[in-house]
Predict the 3D structure of the following.
Amino acid sequence: MNIFKNYFKIVRNHKFSVLLYTIIFLSISIFFLNSNSSNTDADYSEVKNNVYIEDRSNSQISKALVDYIGKREKIVSDLDKENLDDELFYRTIDAIIMIPEDFENTKEIAYKSSPQSMYSFLVKQRVNEYIDKFDKYSKNGYSLEESIKYANSDLDKTIKVQKINDLKQSNGDESASRFYFNFVSYPLLSQILLAVTLVMSSYYKETVNKRQRVSPVSEKRTNLILTLGHLVFGIIFWILYLLICIVLVKDFEFNQVFLLAALNSFVFMISAVTLSMLVGKLFQDSNSLSVVINVLVLGSSFLSGVFVPMEFLGESTLKLARIFPNYYYILNNSLIDQGKKLSELIPNILILLGFSLVFVVLTNVVKKPITKNEE
């Protein structure tokens, strides 16, 4: 019982370091969950600039170019030609296009833009786009009319922009739940690694180790009580993050999605505890532990889809991520978000439990640590 009490006494002495991850997690989660809900109905629209055009060529191609610009920009015509520079300065217009008389031969224009306009560069980009497209058809033997027709046809094609969440059949609550449970693996793994390795490092100190050898409590019993302490610590924070989910996620429902995500996170918590025990056995001094924890947590989180969704990660990255338990945990969250049942999550749950078993075996097999605490 004394060992169990000492376990949480050691954790309390480092409570600020442990709880710091929760504070960071809460801050980021509140920000992203609120921003996601506030931008749900946001639409994407093309930017239109105010453009003044003077067509001195008055040719078929120049008229086609003016018509094309008119579809993309707002053409302003009722301006005094003598004061066009002032109009640019005061942002009445964003750009001026002068089409010279020999435009049909040179395909060159005179262009001015307002230095204060953020999007005026798009005007010149669109003009160049049209001229380049026309030139390609013209140089390949098409007539003037055909070149204009096909250039317009190509450039009139539009791309529909749609958010990934809208492409899924799942509703907004499930997507918010997926984001939350994906991200929760970062503080959960960080805190478990920190607490478990701190406690193990304290018990591996030379002076403490010598006292343990002469105490009436056997080494096996000590390790068993410490393991129980690790699990209790992990369960406490697992429950904490479930409660935070209930509070943070808007329109929360105690449904199958939540229950499956909770089960998945519980299995991940067990793998995090066993991994922490192995790390604590291999690295026993505080300096090496801090480096290993940071590299392990951040590396596995970035590769496995905690910070960046799996949909945006390359195949080689995801193949490398398979060596971490996080990958299978995040993969299950994705399946839950798609409405999959428990039977389809079992393979990844078994892999997570397999990781836990391997970590436990390695912890017991390792006799000599890589770095030792000599204090």
